[in-house]
Design brief:
With 303 residues, the protein is α+β, with helices and mostly antiparallel strands. It has 3 domains: 3-86, Arc Repressor Mutant, subunit A, CATH 1.10.10.10; 94-163 and 270-298, Periplasmic binding protein-like II (D-Maltodextrin-Binding Protein, domain 2, 3-Layer(aba) Sandwich); 166-264, D-Maltodextrin-Binding Protein, domain 2 (3-Layer(aba) Sandwich). The protein contains 9 helices and 15 strands. The chain has a 5-stranded mixed β-sheet, with helices on one face. A 3-stranded antiparallel β-sheet has the order 13-7-14. A 3-stranded mixed β-sheet has the order 9-8-12, with helices on one face. A hairpin with a 5-residue loop joins strand 8 (194-196) and strand 9 (202-203). Helix 1 (6-18) packs across helix 2 (21-28), helix 1 crosses helix 4 (62-86) and helix 2 (21-28) packs across helix 3.
Amino acid sequence: MDRRSIPDLAAFALLAELRSFRRAGEIMGVSASALSHRLRRMETALGVRLLNRSTRSVAPTEAGERLLARLGPALADIEAGLMEVAAFRERPAGRLRLSVPRSAARLAIGPRLGGFLRAYPDIRVEVVSDNALIDIVAGGFDAGIRLDENLPAEMVAVRVGPPLSMAAVASPDYLARHGVPKTPEDLAGHACFRLRWPSGAFYDWELERGDDVRSIAVSGPLIVDDTQLLVAAAVDGAGIAFVAEPSVRDELASGALVRLLEDWCPPFPGYSLYYPSRRQVSPALRAFIDWMRRPADAACPMR
């Protein structure tokens, strides 16, 4: 094997990291069968098996682990060199793959994504919306966006949004029929909607006023995994929803929903973009970070 084998070695390293021909193929833009053929060709040239694979799993052999330990630093140096060269381009280019929860996709990225794509036409963005806490390294993502409380350790985090606040909301019709809750204790007598995380756990309503912090396991007629369904049901008068305030800003302005217990919903740090600390920032990711950190009224293409 010689320098012409570097692409095959990089493919092997990605396979060993992701342990999936399908996911590695998606990132490289080739089919899983083409990637499998490339690996067999490399194993034949070396005369040793590098990956054990079955219909359900992929894992490095002992020889594969040793090769991977040698390849890691070398491929990192190559990646750093390519990024340095890419910095000389007039416009950033390349692929940018992001993992974000659905709420962040709607509230943080959605309003700015179109402008970013127009400003940087050579960058191809893939946004994967999932409320599960994804391992962005194992998933082959360049970066993720989460609330501060959910940020993984050993990551570089950059704030990309303003502070947020939660909002308990209900329709005027519901409140006319059931009364207005004045305290957290009053919620026990109301139809409160619940949000379930991908792990199966419920989100308890987090209320805070000064030093008084409450975590309330509400009950009610609706359990969902998408806050938009909560909002729709609240507008229809079925109960009380507890969501991020920007999710219901239009409904509050129009009077379709009324905000409740507002003094129990103080602001908290908003979304942060994060990426592995050991990974050099690509020009595409740097451009996206800078774009997201600009004030909202400035994040638009130059006219």
